[in-house]
Structures are given as C-alpha cells and as structure tokens.
Amino acid sequence: MFHALRNRNYRLFWYGSVVSNTGTWMQRIAQDWLVLQLTSSGTALGITTALQFLPVLLFGLQGGVLADRLPKRQILLVTQTVMGLAALVLGLLEVAGVVQVWHVYLLAAVLGLGAAFDNPARQSFVIEMVGKEDLSNAIGLNATAFNMGRVVGPAVAGLLISASHQHTGPVFLINAASFLAILVALGRMRESELEASPRRSAGKGALREGLRYVRSNREVRTILLVTACFGTFGMNFSITTALMAKDVYGKGAGGYGLLGTVMAVGSLTGALLAARREAPQLKVFLAAVIAFGVLESVSGLMPSYVSFAVVLVPLGLTSITALNTANALLQTRSDPVMRGRVLSLHVLVVFGTAPLVSPLIGWVGEEFGARWSLSGGGVLSLVGGVAGAVYLGRQRTVPVAAVEPEPVAASAA
C-alpha cells in the first residue's frame, strides 16, 4: 500500500511533509481565530482568505510556467523559505502584542504568493521522485500526509490557543519551525535519482500554449471545469466551519479546532483509499463531487454541534477523493512538458477562485446566517458535478487509464 515510499527521495519528502503539514494546519486555525478575535467579523475572515488566495489567482498560471521551465526542487527551496518566514513574522507580532488585522492581511498575501509558485512545482515534482508507476500511490500518500496534519494540527492549535489564554502567537512560531522539516528533506535529496521532466525553453507564449492544450483535451477540460465549480463554491471550510462553530453552535477555539480534526478523519480515510487505487477513474471523480455536493447541502441543516460534526466525516472523505482523483487524472493525461501548466490550472480552480467568492461567503454568513453560506455552496457543487456527468455521458468515451496523451512539442517561441 505504501510502495511509493521505497523511493528514497520521496520518502524524505513525505516525512518532511507530515511535519510541515501539521504546522500549516495549526496556522490555519490560529489565523482564522486571530482575525475573529481582532474583528468579530465574518467579512474580515473572508477578506483574509481572499488575500491568501489572491496571489494564486494572479500568479498561479505563471507558477506553472516556471515549474515547466526550472528545476522544481530549487523552486520549492525558495517558496518554502518564504512561507516559513511569513509565519515567523506573524508569530513574533502576536507574541509582542502589537499585531493588527492589516498585519494578518499582509502576511496572508505573502503566504499566498509563496503558494502560487509552490503548488504547481510541488505537485508536478511527485512524478519526478517516484515515476509514473508509483504516481497514484504517491498522490494518495501525499494526501495522507496532508490529512494527518489536518487531523492533528487543528486539535493541537485549539488546545494551545486555549492553554495560552487565547494567544495565537505560539502556534505561528511552531508552524515557522515546521518548515525546516521539508527544507532539510529537499536539501538531502539525491538529484541523480530524480526523473526530471523535459523542461520548456525560455520564451514567450508558454501560458497560451498551456491554455490551448487544455482546450483541445475534452476530459482534462471537463475535470478542470467541474473542479472549479466545487472548489469555488464548496471548499470554503475555513470560513463556513468557523462561522458555524462560533455563531450557530456557540463554540470557542477548541470546538472549532475539533471540527477541523473530525473532517480530517474523513479526508484521511479518503486519502488511504486513494493510495490503494492503481489507476484514477473519471467515474470515481464525478461520483465523489456529486456526493460532496449532497453532503455539504445537508450539513448546513444539522440541528446540533454533534450532528454537524458527524456529517463532516463523509464530507471530508468525498472532498479528498474528488481532489486526489482529479490530480491523478490530470497528471496521467497530460504531456510531461505541459504538466506544470496543467496542474497550475488545477490549483487555480481549487484555490485561486477564493478571492472572488470568500468575501461574499463571509457576507452571506453574516447577513443571512452561516447555514445559508454552507448549504448554498453544496447545492452549487452538486450542480457542477451533475452537469459534468451529463456532458461526458453524452460523449463517446474510452477508459482514461488506457489512453496515452498525444505528445506536445515544447515551444521555443
């Protein structure tokens, strides 16, 4: 089940990711809680989320171009350092007692800028560490590492905040230290064992070339459009669960952190199941999106904190199944020279659209109640999944895993 870990470079990367992801999830909880402490505003929380993901919208595609042009390991060394420093500064400001909401806004944007270039490089780096044979297993293991952090991080963050008399600074400092794990892992890799993808020559036209490639590939195009729908409207849990915990169920930081942990249990289960699959399947992706939409719609109707937490388990499972399957489909269906740009589009439609809707989600939660913002996102996600299934059902299809992508020559324009 864990055969991708036989690759030394990937093994180092995975262990470092477990530590770093735990710190990242701790920071997510602490950052959201700090904004609510400073402002008591769902709109401010939405603005913070928007600023963190705005760089992905503005620069994410350029991050994909860079990933197709430069060694991905070098890119990751830079991006991980930048994000670690941002966490360090925020922690020092909070510990010193001088933090203001604009500091959070600014440093959230810095984290987003690092992520805009980090995500395409990191996702397309996986196949260079493990090869195509172990790719699906490695993607599942990546999600497992991500969700192990998601299980532990929110709970630890909630406990630390409570133990620190509602201070979030120690959480940010721990996250800053956690970036050292992935930096050490990247530094210890054996470059000779990496299966480097062909790199595109420097020049103009790379972004247009990537967009043309996506438009010409029906399955890739549909996967991205469906993902855009549920990523934009459904994956706003940092806002919706915070508002549900605080405004609907009257819980504090510990209760909010526990919801994140509960949802991560479902996501971790989905990640482990994904690691067992030998090849990604389009029908699994579409079924997961549809189930996600139904569950999210229902979650906003839950009458109690406990019933809400219970629904978060299958909601987490379906969300990670959809995201992992989409990632694996896009990697196996894309020409190697285009992989960074295709994955940057995937990151863009999952995270980059948040600046467009996060303030709106926060405003809806404030004006009409958190239940409306949560269930509304579920309904729109369901519509996207059904539309994708109907569209592809009308087309003549063949098994995705059985088709090799047509080669695309690297442009030197």
Descriptive tags:
413 residues, Growth Hormone, Chain: A, 15 helices, MFS_dom, Putative MFS family arabinose efflux permease, transmembrane transporter activity
Question: Would you kindly provide a written description of the structure presented here, covering whatever features stand out?
Answer:
It is a multi-pass membrane protein. The protein is mainly α and 413 residues long. It has a single domain (3-193, 204-402), classed as Up-down Bundle (Growth Hormone, Chain: A). It is 79% helix and 0% strand. It has 15 helices and no strands. The radius of gyration is 20 Å and the shape is globular. The termini are far apart. The model is unreliable at 400-413 (pLDDT under 50).
